[in-house]
Automatic annotation (TrEMBL):
PROSITE patterns xrefs: PYRIDINE_REDOX_2
Matches recorded under InterPro entries: FAD/NAD-bd_sf, FAD/NAD-binding_dom, Ferredoxin-NADP_redctase_2, Pyr_nucl-diS_OxRdtase_2_AS, Thioredox_Rdtase
Name used for this protein in its record: Thioredoxin reductase
Catalyzed chemical reaction(s): [thioredoxin]-dithiol + NADP(+) = [thioredoxin]-disulfide + NADPH + H(+)
Record-linked NCBIfam families: TRX_reduct (TIGR01292)
Source organism (scientific name): Lophium mytilinum
Cofactor requirements of the protein: FAD
EC code: 1.8.1.9
Quaternary organization: Homodimer.
Region of interest (Disordered), ranges: 335-356
GO cellular component entries: cytoplasm
Highest taxon of the lineage: Eukaryota
Entry keywords, A to Z: Disulfide bond, FAD, Flavoprotein, NADP, Oxidoreductase, Redox-active center
GO biological process: removal of superoxide radicals
Length: 356
């Protein structure tokens, strides 16, 4: 199969890109994944309950919001394929890619597909600690996103715990202090990895207690269906001593893994594996390949910012494809053809990516 635009990923970034590309008559094909990275089609929002900060919806279930986005992209004309992209070759154009028949652990299908442009919206996965009780109380106290969930009524005027020692952990803990009674921050080592300013803000905040050399051990709570968490057993890593502390909420701030394994060695990435894009435009280091959403954003990681960058990536892809048309329609002369093959398919006068 050959497509003008292929979108990989099915979170808010992927579906927004699909809506824009479909409305521009680009006939996009969106691969929503079959439990890619262990996340259902629809992305991270399918793992949360209430979303209260997506404009237009005062309160909506994460899964429902994503179902509605999917419906909208399909109605606009997107072809949605429930498979995971297993392999991609971005070295020459048209780009080539292959699929897993079903889940990530399945063999790769031999059939080769091609695309003129690719929008990467594969997202990221918040790291979990696999503490006992985590699955039981996930969404009922345990979360991986304070900015997303910290304002929920269940956390107001409550004692909360954040685990992590970097700048994200500090920012998440400070965010929680606005509504919580108390925030305890568990730091595995004897110091924070945050900037000095952030560290000072945290350690001097009247609602915050930082416990260095401490880890979480066991999450406890109500023993009924959808029961809330109520406490956390913690351990002093130096003395081995354990204690139980009051905790209505537990927020992991131990990092995210961007879904970029497919693109290693092909696209520029930062030291944490996030795709590097040109700020505000979604252009990656390869012309014709765009990225949107959490896969290229380690700072904000919100549904609305992902949707916004999905729109940008689709508009950039549309413009870029249009810029290619004269070369295709008018036919390139032999000299240009030779130059094109030597420049990885990029004809200099049609170059729109200033990074190249
Ligand atoms: C528990 C939790 C609660 C949250 N709550 C909120 C909230 O209330 N408000 C808010 O604004 N944000 C919230 N967020 C953050 C928000 O979910 C993310 O910022 C947003 O979903 C990122 O969107 P995305 O489009 O970049 O990708 P993602 O949502 O990460 O989706 C990417 C999708 O692509 C699929 N995929 C990956 N690789 C492939 C492949 N090779 N082939 C095909 N498919 C693939 C993945 O399986 C996944 O389904 C929350 C996050 C979490 C974890």
């Amino acid at each position: 199969m050959h497509s003008k635009v292929v979108i990989i990923g099915s979170g808010p970034a992927g579906h927004t890109a699909a809506i824009y590309a479909a409305r521009a008559d680009l006939n996009p094909v969106l691969y929503e994944g079959f439990l890619a990275l262990g996340i259902a089609a629809g992305g991270q929002l399918t793992t949360t309950d209430e979303v209260e900060n997506y404009p237009g919806f005062k309160k909506i279930q994460g899964g429902k919001l994503m179902d509605q986005m999917r419906e909208q992209s399909e109605e606009c004309g997107t072809e949605i394929v429930s498979q995971t992209v297993a392999k991609i070759d971005l070295k020459t154009r048209p780009f080539k890619y292959w699929l897993h028949p079903m889940g990530d652990d399945e063999e790769i299908e031999p059939e080769e597909h091609t695309a003129d442009s690719v929008i990467i919206a594969t997202g990221a996965k918040a790291r979990r600690l696999d503490l006992p009780g985590e699955t039981q109380y996930w969404g009922n106290g345990v979360s991986a996103c304070a900015v997303c969930d910290g304002s929920l009524p269940m956390f107001r005027d409550q004692s909360l715990v954040v685990i992590g020692g970097g700048d994200s952990a500090v920012e998440e803990a400070l965010y929680l202090t606005k509504k919580a009674k108390k925030v305890t921050v568990l730091v595995r080592r004897d110091k924070l990895r945050a900037s000095r300013t952030n560290a000072r803000r945290l350690t001097t905040h009247p609602k915050v207690e930082v416990k260095f050399n401490h880890s979480g051990v066991l999450i406890k709570g109500e023993e009924k269906k959808n029961g809330l968490m109520s406490s956390l057993v913690i351990k002093n890593n130096v003395t081995g001593e354990e204690q139980e502390i009051e905790a209505r909420g537990l927020f992991y701030a131990v990092g995210h893994d961007p879904a970029t394994t497919l693109f290693k060695g092909q696209l520029d990435m930062d030291e944490d594996g996030y795709l590097i894009t040109q700020a505000g435009r979604g252009l990656t280091s390869v012309e014709g390949v765009f990225a949107a959403g959490d896969v290229q954003d380690k700072r904000y990681r919100q549904a609305i910012t992902s949707a916004g960058s999905g729109c940008v990536a689709a508009l950039e892809a549309e413009k870029w494809l249009m810029d290619q048309e004269p070369a295709v329609e008018n036919g390139l002369d032999a000299e240009n053809q030779a130059e094109k093959s030597q420049t990885n398919g990029v004809v200099p006068e049609y170059r729109s990516n200033p990074l190249l």
